[in-house]
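Possible regression after last week's pipeline update?

I re-ran a chain I had predicted before the update to compare outputs. Posting the input and the new output here so someone can diff against the archived version. Not blocking, just want to make sure nothing changed silently.
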Amino acid sequence: LLNEHIPVAIKCNCIDIIYGLADHERWIMDELQVILEKYILTKSPALLSRTKRILKAIKKVKQTRATKTC
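New output (post-update):
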């Protein structure tokens, strides 16, 4: 995801795959969130859209986890 020479379509699919893996390993979601927050400044509409969607999903999952622990 961090390599700028990789096509946008591949990065978008990788974001979805990595987010899917976050169900198995909790640390992935935190790391993915940090990386995606850097992509908010991207010029690619596809990558920007995917980033916003996944960040919204991450925040929703974290809120759900927080309410379940209370």
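Follow-up from reviewer: compared with the archived run. The chain is about 75% helix and 0% strand. Marking as no regression found.
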